[in-house]
């Protein structure tokens, strides 16, 4: 059977011109059992379209692990290291994950209590709620009327010691129905986005770069971000912005000497732009909550200095300044018209290019709305590739 691809159904809020290449539904391929030739085609499709959807899939945790590993055959451990349920209690990710005992690379995530699930007698799950993370909150009255927020825009990555996973697979086993909610930005713009209950929202890192004016493209192509050591523990006392796109600068991060033991050699310094292995395009890939410093290279020889930011290069260590610059570059791409909020159905499998998109949990469930998903990603065998010398010449 030939592999067939169908464009995803976009919400009325979406600017279709920015989604020409983004996302495809795939038919004619069993993601639990495929030939090497089929996989080659699948891999190309993923890097070209950044998110692939399969409907009505039956997929065991073993099959999901095998599928995820196929994109990076020498990777073995979950993106944050295996068995996250046991240790690192202080990390803000701890309450969101339950490890599947017989396939520790696959995590159970969702909401409500799940019984006798893949060797877990009773798993209490909690859909992350913005009240536990954002500085300001939606009032209970507004929440009852269906107002909600983006929880946290991110890349799936430990961002310390372990390389960012290439892909994430998300498989919906139990998807509670309910009315749409309205995701509010609450940043003074009045922006809001109607979303299906419990959507996963995606934006393209390629679009994020494309939208930038020339001086910020030049800055992005010359910049590297330094992430905090143990970033999810470091940020644990702090609060996020109302858009979920980074942290408010209140000085609440844990001091570096209060973190678990860490070494400089494991701290991640990564380019802002990551090169797509199939299209060679550049994706703006920064996890805004975890950033701590910015390194900017000088303009290459012969480049026009007029209007350029930091033409001689710089190293910015002021946390507020780093966050401000990155926010300015990322915020345009989460405009409602550039967001794809996936409308989950039971037995949906989504594979996304974790080095090419940002995503976030959205919405709020009541405790009786039981949601169960399997998620898998693997700490990669290599680092993302940054811009080439030609890219710098072209955009700087
Ligand atoms: Fe995620």
TrEMBL record:
Family in the record: Belongs to the TfdA dioxygenase family.
Cofactor or coenzyme needed: Fe(2+)
Gene source species: Meripilus lineatus
Keyword terms: Dioxygenase, Iron, Metal-binding, Oxidoreductase
Domain annotation TauD/TfdA-like: ranges: 22-376
GO MF annotation, one: metal ion binding
Pfam families, per the entry: TauD (PF02668)
Domain of life: Eukaryota
Classification via InterPro entries: TauD-like_sf (IPR042098), TauD/TfdA-like (IPR003819), TfdA_dioxygenase (IPR051178)
SUPFAM superfamilies: Clavaminate synthase-like
Protein name per the record: TauD/TfdA-like domain-containing protein
